[in-house]
Write a structure and sequence with these properties.
Elements lengths: L3 H11 L22 E4 L5 E3 H10 L11 H20 L8 H23 L5 H10 L5 E11 L17 H16 L4 H8 L3 H4 L4 E5 L7 H7 L11 E2 L3 E12 L2 H26 L8 H5 L1 H6 L2
Helix pairs in contact: 1-3, 4-10, 5-10
Amino acid sequence: MKALSVFVFTCGILAAQATPPPSVPAPSIPDLPDGTVIAVFDDGVKFTMADFRNLYAALPANQQGMLRDRKAFLEQYALMRKLSQMAEADKLDQASPNKEALAFNRMFLLSQMKLQTESMKPVVEEDEVKKYYEANQGQYHQVKVKAIYIAFSRALASQASNGKQLLTEDEARAKAQKLLADIRGGADFVKLVRENSDDAASRDKDGDFATLHPTDTIPDAIKAAVFSLKQGEVSEAIEQGNGFYLLRAEEVSTRPLAEVHGDIYTALQQEYFRKWLQATHDGIKVQFPSAEFLSGQKAAAEGK
């Protein structure tokens, strides 16, 4: 439909107050046969349920909320339709810069359609997924971690929210190192968690901290320490913010293929698309006969 992008933009402005936030589900549309006439415009043209479904599918998700008031929506659509017809009658689509804007918008929309189509086109074979998984096992390692956290303060005579006197940085480091020595000497890690950890959330779960993956957004020091541990080992004291962590690898494992299959499939599909786009880009040959246009030196000189 002509002027669809303009329609979407204008409706978005006029219906801004009625548009629900992205978290609100889009309204459902009536389950009517495609041939059902739902509107007749002032020039006699009939608008069917099939037309409505096609238009609905073309709208961005954040614009579909305007369809909660279907009567107002179709009245607004009729106005846009009338205005576009009037513009064509006045040959506004043939005058510059309007015709260039229309041509550019058409080219832009078509290019986006092509990119969308190509991004979904590659079919990844099952063997490729398995080969990728086997060759990149490190990406799918996971470590279930327990933690002891020893907080400190750089201010004098500071207290935690529970009224406990906070340690200085040196005192906290010494305490963490003492606990580490006790653990490596056979002390019960969970017992030490309950008695010493300043992280209430993990302390209440006997030190359960998280199951970490190499792709997680976590500090480099923690990532390096955790993924160098063998099952049952405890890290050196790791300083993070105002505290020191002792981290124990409770369970070291690899995520099964079934769990990461979708991620691998998408990654391979995106890689094929990236290569296709790069090849398409590399195949473009553009000549630039005017050095002045690119540099702007002549224009600058004339302006002096």
